[in-house]
Amino acid sequence: MPDLSTEAPAATGALASASVVPPAASTESLSPGRPGYRRMSFALFAAGVAAFALLYSTQALLPAITADLGVTAGAASWTVSAATGALALFVLPLSALSERFGRRTLMTLSLTVAVVVGLLVPLAPNLEWLIALRAVQGAALAGLPASAMAYLAEEVRPKALVGAIGLFVAGNSIGGMSGRVLAGWVSQLWGWRAGLAAIGLLALVCAAVFRVLLPKARNFRPGTLNPRALAKTVGGHLADPLLRRLYAIGALFMTVFGAVYTAIGFRLAEAPFNLPQGVIGSIFLVYLVGTLSSAAAGKLVARLGRRGALYLAVGTTAAGLLLSLSDSLGAVLLGLVLITAGFFAGHAVASSAVSRTAKTGRAQASALYQSAYYVGSSAGGTLGAVAFHAGGWGATATLGLLAVLGVVSVTLYGTHAARTERRALAASN
After folding, report:
1. Closest Cα partner for 290 from 351, 338, 354, 350?
2. Whose CA, among 93, 114, 399, 419, lies 20 to 30 Å from 145?
3. What is the CATH number of the domain that holds 328?
4. DSSP string spanning 364-426?
5. What phi and psi values does residue 306 have, to the nearest 5 degrees?
6. Rounded to the nearest 10 degrees, how much is the dihedral formed by the CA atoms of 9, 11, 14, 19?
7. What pLDDT was estimated at residue 3?
8. Does some domain include residue 370?
9. What is the pTM (predicted TM-score) of this model?
10. Are 209 and 42 within 8 A, CB to CB?
11. Is residue 110 part of a domain?
12. What's CA 405's distance to the chain center, in Å?
């Protein structure tokens, strides 16, 4: 069984989890300086911006939605959880469809449907319609992680693959951040519906750029849909104890992150902070810290090993949660910085370990990780908002600390299991 304390992580990010094994380079492969490489890079960057701006479009607007529609924080949080939950549900089947119909086709269809729904979301007459439209949007967006990494692996030369993935992941991060910031400021001026409309228009422009610039696939070879083979592969991954632990770690880390960033807007809108909607949206600029901590994860693993890096990520996240309990705005912001840095580092370590652990069916193994990751996001978003409504920020922070304790427990169990296995092997020899 592979050890979590070895090997440096591969490229990471929410969508980068759906990685596949790069094929051997062909004469048709793209690389820096060759025709099409720059177009491909900008196209997938635009796709990443559109996808993550849409996926979390309502998160920064939850206080405004709650006040306007007269609903509770927990009910409003379903506008986020419905999208991430649907993505978790559909990412695996859509990964199979991309094998049959092509990565480019599925990415185009996914973005088109998500953008169309995004333009309809501001027109939702009530919370029920808003949640339903967001669920459809999340299901559509599942086609991107199912296809983007496979497209890159097939079309880009192996030596240039890390750089291409890095730009795509940057699009994910910038989309998630810019969508929240844009929605916050527009909402402050013209209301939350205008904020959602602005994100829909941003995504429309990005989707058009993606479709115009993305080169046709040259190395894709259609496969056949084989549900039995897919079920066997998935079953094998779920039977692997190490993969199950990695899936649990991803889900628990994302539970913390989802809870914190869903409830933080409610906290900052209330006393003693009383911040306006635009400033609350700007809080998501803290995401830039996550980009840096993800990039630093490789160096952490080289120094501390995978388990050591996970423990450091857990400690950083826990320290941030405790610091966020303060009534000082500066302390709360520093707490968010630590939570974000710890989360992204932990996610980087866990997600990169998945594709290295799975010897076959790596795309499906990574899709399962992503499903667990977004289940954690949905659970954290809803439970975090419910906890805040019931007991304030202290209750939300406690939920996060319990999830952090879960990561520690899973990691300690993995350490014990690895030691037990090594002793058994030594005894048998």
Report:
1. 338
2. 399
3. 1.20.1250.20
4. HHHHHHHHHHHHHHHHHHHHHHHHHHHHHHHHHHHHHHHHHHHHHHHHHHHHHHHHHHHHHHH
5. -65, -45
6. -100
7. 38
8. yes
9. 0.78
10. yes
11. yes
12. 21
Domain count, the chain: 1
Q: Residue count of the chain, please give it.
A: 429
3-state SS class at 136: helix
Residue 26 has a pLDDT of 47
Domain of 243 in residue numbering reads as 37-428
Q: Give the whole-angstrom CA distance, residue 280 versus residue 184.
A: 7
The residue to which tokens 């991309």 are assigned: 98
- 8 in a domain, yes or no? no
Q: Could you write out the DSSP letters of every residue in 101-117? A: H-HHHHHHHHHHHHHHH
| Residue 156 phi, psi dihedral angles, 5° rounding | -110, 140
Query: For residue 158, is the peptide bond before it cis, meaning its omega torsion is within 30 degrees of 0?
Result: no
Instruction: Give the pLDDT of residue 146.
Output: 66
User: What residues contact residue 59 under an 8 Å CB cut-off, 6+ apart?
Assistant: 80, 180, 261, 262, 265, 381
Contact 353, 306 (CB under 8 A): yes
Which 3 state secondary structure label does DSSP give 228? helix
Contacts of 395 (CB under 8 A, 6+ apart): 387, 388
Q: What is the distance in angstroms between the CA of the first residue and the CA of the last residue of the chain?
A: 17
Distances in Å between the Cα of 399 and the Cα atoms of 263, 364, 393 are 12, 30, 10
Q: How far apart are CA 38 and CA 362, in angstroms?
A: 27
Tokens of 380: 């954290």
Residue 384 to residue 59: CA distance in whole angstroms: 12
60 secondary structure, DSSP code: G
How many Cα atoms within 13 Å fall on the side-chain side of residue 344?
26
Q: What is the C-alpha radius of gyration for the chain, rounded to an integer number of angstroms?
A: 21
pLDDT for 29: 65
Instruction: Give the model's pLDDT for residue 226.
Output: 77
* Structural tokens at position 40: 């491909």
Let me know if residue 27 belongs to a domain. no
Answer yes or no: are the C-beta atoms of 72 and 389 closer than 8 Å: yes
pLDDT of residue 92: 86
Gap between the Cα atoms of 60 and 73, Å rounded:
12
3-class state of residue 289 by DSSP:
helix
Q: Which residues of the chain have pLDDT under 70?
A: 1-35, 146, 158-171, 220, 223-224, 291, 294-295, 297-298, 355, 362-363, 429
Helices 287-323 & 158-190 angle (0-180, nearest 10) = 70
